[in-house]
Amino acid sequence: MSAEEQAAHFNKEAESYDSKFGEINTACASAHVSQITSRLLSTSSTSSSLRVLDLGAGTGNTTIPIASLPNVSQVVALDVSEGMLAQLSKKLPTSLQSKVMTVCGNLLSDDESTCAALKQKLGGPFDVVVTSVVLHHIVDVSKAVKVLAGLLKPGSGMLSVVDLERASEITDEEASHAFFGGNQQSMTAAHQHLVHHHGFTRKTFEEYLRNAGLIDIQTQTAGKIARPPQDHHHHQHQHPDDSAEKHHHEAEEEHEHHHHDHGTTPTEVTLFISTAIRPL
Fold first, then answer.
1. For residues 38 and 259, what is the distance between their CA atoms, to the nearest angstrom?
2. pLDDT at 204 over 70
3. What average pLDDT is seen over the chain?
4. Is 140 helix (H, G, I), strand (E, B) or coil?
5. Where are the alpha helices (H) located in the chain, listed in sequence order?
6. CA–CA gap between residue 91 and residue 77 (Å, rounded)
7. pLDDT at residue 268 in the model
8. Single pTM value for the model
């Protein structure tokens, strides 16, 4: 899916996004704030005027709590979706408007001139770069992490990433089941194209951070949340020639099929948070 198609998808989802993913958004924000507080603001050598980039800021569920921290001077909220950023602006408290700058653009574009122009617009380097459940939507995660690492202030800048955690021993199919109930048809066609990784193991993600030249890597659980709702519209197709009994029988067969293949559908998704520092 192209960046333009992704933007169109999230523009469409913008108004309902918070109601669908409130729990996951709260967990992400809490984890980022905790890490910024414990790893940066607790040290006397840290600047008392931090600049933060929120990549994939969406409707501002992480941007706003970070901007509320007294030691943060500015949060740049970057997203490919103008609709998402419009929702952020609507709910941004007046007291924080001077601390938040919204920017629409794709920092991970293959177009080098576009990326260079966007980086110049963002300013930098940043004391902190955060991103929340974004990287599983990215095809080349290794490249993305290197781009984000390059935006950090040398010697102290911290990258903070929250995303879906995947158990090391499970297959792609099992990972899909864990996050989406095992039935890819239950996802909209657009969402299927948006998801490129069914979570990351801690080992894999920490390798991305090391390959980007980052050090002092720490990873921990960010939270366990209810599995987000999916679009089950495919079960709602009308079959006027079929009886209710037949529908019931098919539903039972489908349930048994998934139960046999995967076991009970998980009700929770685990989030991890990885933080790392850019060396001098």
1. 43
2. yes
3. 79
4. coil
5. 3-35, 63-67, 82-91, 112-122, 141-149, 172-180, 189-194, 202-211, 244-262
6. 14
7. 79
8. 0.77
Residues 6+ apart with CB under 8 A from 251: 235
Q: Alpha carbon 52 to chain centroid distance?
A: 16
What's the average model confidence in pLDDT over 143-160? Answer: 96
SS3 assignment, position 13: helix
Say whether 37 sits in a helix, a strand or coil.
helix
Both tokens assigned to 275? 């933080």
Worst-scoring range by mean pLDDT, 78-82, 115-119, 148-152, 262-266?
262-266
How far, in Å, CA of 99 to CA of 68, rounded?
A: 9
What pLDDT, on a 0 to 100 scale, did the predictor assign at position 257?
A: 40
**Which among 62, 95, 94, 93 is positioned nearest to 79, based on CA atoms?**
62
**Gap between the Cα atoms of 101 and 110, Å rounded:** 24
Token representation of residue 53: 């980039």
- Token pair 């940066």 in the structure block, residue: 40
* Burial class (CB within 10 angstroms; exposed 0-12, middle 13-18, buried 19+) of 154: exposed
Burial of 162 (0-12, 13-18, 19+ CB in 10 A): buried
What is the spatial distance between Cα 146 and Cα 261, in angstroms, rounded to a whole number? 38
Confidence class of residue 167 from pLDDT cuts 50, 70 and 90? confident
Q: How far is CA 129 from the centre of its chain?
A: 13
What is the C-alpha radius of gyration for the chain, rounded to an integer number of angstroms?
A: 20
Residue 171 to residue 78: CA distance in whole angstroms:
33
At 228, list the tokens. 């987000």
The predicted-structure confidence for 29-88, as pLDDT tens digits, reads as follows: 999 999 999 988 766 555 568 999 999 999 999 999 999 999 999 999 999 999 999 999
d(CA 178, CA 45): 42
Q: Do 234 and 185 meet the contact criterion of CB atoms below 8 Å apart? A: yes
Q: Are strands 268-277 and 215-226 parallel, antiparallel or unpaired?
A: antiparallel
